[in-house]
Amino acid sequence: MSETLLTIEDLVVQYRQGRKKVVKAVDGVSLTVAAGEFVALVGESGCGKTTTAQTAMRMVPATSGTIRYRDRDITNATQSEMRPIRRELQIIFQDPYESLDPRFRVKDIVAEPLEIHGLDNRDERVRAAMERAGLTPADLYLERYPHELSGGQRQRVSIAAALALEPTMLLADEPVSMLDVSVRAGILGLLNDLRTSGLGILMITHDLSTAAHFADRICVMYLGRIVEEGPAHEVIRNPQHPYTKALVSVVPQPDPEQSMQPEILQGETPNPADVPTGCRFHPRCPVATAACSSEDPPLRPAGSDGHRAACILV
Amino acid sequence: MSFVDPPQAALPDVVRPSSRVRATLSFLRHHPQAVVGAIILLAFVFIAIFGPYLAPYGEREQVGPLFGTPSSAHPLGLDDGGIDMLSLLIYGARVTLIVGFAGAVVAMLVGGTIGIVAGYFGGKIDNALMRMTDYFLVIPDLVLMIVIASIWGRSLRNIILIIGLIYWTFMARLIRSQVKVVRERAYVKRAQALGASHLRIIFKHVIPQIMPLLLAQTVLMVALAIFLETAISFLGLGDPSVTSWGKMIENAFSRSAISYGAWWAIVPPGIAVALVIMAFNMLGTAVEDSLNPRLKVSHLSRRHFRLRPLPDKEGRS
Question: ipTM of this predicted complex?
């Protein structure tokens, strides 16, 4: 197996709400991403996916747990200690309309990381990164402002800027959720190509079907925890956790003849400031038993290839 | 499987320079008051720069009787020392405009810096700076002005500093709120994730974004500064060694020009102050109007506010 790049262990991120209340946005998440691996972190809004990614980038401080990049513990690294890490670990944001400075030309946006890290040969590197991100010919785009580009082109500029430093890993925070369906496949295909060339990719998404298509492994998050993880095909074909089962059941089938039995969950996601006792999914779980409200199950092996789920019925 | 974007629509050729010119022209067409304001201002700036060559008589030269009436030789009459009013008005333009600009720039630099630091760093720094700003804000301007002028002494430099000291609070609060918005932008977060320093982010991403606002507010602030300078001089706290419009009014007032019936000693500098302030306001609001998209669509805009007749029964207005 190839080298493990990012390792997150027992990560907890807390926010204070007022004086006494503590919100655990992320509550004991562990995951790893290896070189050439495409991992999808799937979950609904507010479950802590983005916080996990931002904590890995040290944009949000971790309350406890460890984050390692290769063999270096970066949980408490200072900004200057983070600098070499930031060259290798790049993030792509969700909204390509917001994440590019409207006053910068494309070439300045892509060159900015090079400037920050004091690298030479900027022109060449900018062109190389842009071609790699599918903005060909680069000359057509260099002098443009973001508002002159389409959403898909902007997201490619964003990816080119991330690639300019020749990173070894990309964190993609919902890279296609703001884009038209017609250009999504292009961007996802680009990420897939980058993975094939050896980058580790952690993609955050709420769309299980794109995750199923591209990811090697899927981690399903619910209310700050990973409730199921495993090889993508295993998780999709043989979901073990009732939450994952519900998610898989609502993914549209390409065959209209095939009947769907969507399983719609009752109720709303609980407030992360007021997590239910026991298994945090039990108030909405269709198969909950009495024990579920008192016992908080850890991730347990379920099936093959490191497929694990956090449910007492497994 | 291959992934291709749908065929790229041909991007139009880059036509930026001409579009910028066009934008400026369309701004001027839609804001005629900006043109009027700019013309008035240019005239006064011209007078201020070339004053010594334009003035028919000297700044301290007695050329006739006290409070001499307007005549063909002295179109605006003479003041209490027999000095030509028109010449004084021309000399005064320079001091008044210098104080106005310099005071506004001081306010912008101090207020802008504090606003940017408070807005960008937030938290405790923001709290400390904003409480300090609040303290300055609640001190009555006039009292602060009188106290400082009597402690520091009466000089042009001190008047500029006083104006800066009084007006930086407005600037600081306004800039802070804008910086707080920009700071949360994803491209600032992206720069942070890349490891950019705070200074780099502030200079490369934050300041360019708030620059239009900063400029529009500075223009409006010049008007306020000129008004304040006039007030300070009128209260007798101005620099005794230079001529400004406020000082001319004060002079005429304290030497009882009114009881002599010498209206020409008070009215012209008053009109000059009013004209300049109006010009700055016209220009400033026009710039503000075109830079702040919210003002374009809502009743908040001074320019667009109209009282409309109520619709009649058929719903027509």
Answer: 0.80
